[in-house]
Amino acid sequence: MNVNFFVTCIGDALKSRVARDTVLLLEQLGCQVNFPEKQGCCGQPAINSGYIKEAIPGMKNLIAALEENNDPIVSPAASCTYAIKTYPSYLTDEPEWARRAEKVAARIQDLTSFLVNTLGIVDVGARLPGKAVYHPSCSLFRKMGVREEPLALLSHVEGLELMPFKGQETCCGFGGTFSVKMAEISGEIVKEKSSHLMEAQPDYLIGADVSCLLNIGGRLQREGHPVKVMHIAEVLMSR
After folding, report:
1. Where is the chain membrane-spanning (predicted)?
2. What is the DSSP secondary structure assignment for residue 119, as one 8-state letter?
């Protein structure tokens, strides 16, 4: 199957291994991966901050970049995927752009949804011995309703024991620009999240949104906890 890869800003600038492993995984599963070279930021920081007018040029640029073909678009970041899915609602005053946005939004999926629902695969042959906790990001399971797909994939990783923990589905406190504008509240939320997950004494913290992992992982590091933080793409490429 031919697919397009949307790398996201964090994948490009901060977590290149996540981007690499996503592409390698897709190729391993028989996909021909295309990288639209004119892609850029999805505009999520501006959108979340209420700067919709300022974000629209970037939205249009990304829409055009992702119109190279009609193949599925796969992203390793649920928050960016959701942002693109909201484009039509911001372009209602420009019907032609709204129509184009709807077509792009219908084609984009987060990595876990694509693997499970489109490819029909839950076992990719991964192996990672140890205990892990999984953080379901708000964008993935609250906004897009993707709850079981990541768990199905992780349950088939050989040697990996998934541990439940208190408040597993609560927000980590990142919320994009929320963590900057409301830093004290954000800090208390991630402090509580970290405390709860550490009660499970995990070897790994796994998630499907890098931004959440950066936030929780940063807190764990500051507290001196030796927990390895991994995006699900990295886990699924473990052998």
Report:
1. none
2. S
Identify the CA nearest to 212 among candidates 184, 193, 233, 199: 193
Widest distance between CA atoms in the chain = 52
Architecture of domain 122-237 in CATH? 3-Layer(aba) Sandwich (3.40)
Give first-to-last CA distance, the chain, whole Å: 24
* Tokens coding 125: 């042959």
Q: What is the pLDDT along the chain (239 residues), one digit of tens a residue?
A: 999 999 999 888 888 999 999 999 999 999 999 999 999 999 999 998 899 999 999 999 999 999 999 999 999 999 999 999 999 999 999 999 999 999 999 999 999 999 999 999 999 999 999 999 999 999 999 999 999 999 999 999 999 999 999 999 999 988 877 887 888 998 999 999 999 999 999 999 999 999 999 999 999 999 999 999 999 999 999 99
How many helices (H) does the chain have, and how many strands (E)? 13, 8
**Domain residue ranges of the chain, discontinuous segments joined by +:** 2-117, 122-237
Q: Could you tell me which residues come within 8 angstroms of residue 218 by beta carbon, excluding any fewer than 6 positions away?
A: 190
Residue whose pair of structure tokens reads 């708000």 in the numeric block: 138
CA–chain centroid gap for 58, Å, is 20
* Distance, CA of 142 to CA of 83 (rounded, Å): 13
Reported pTM = 0.93
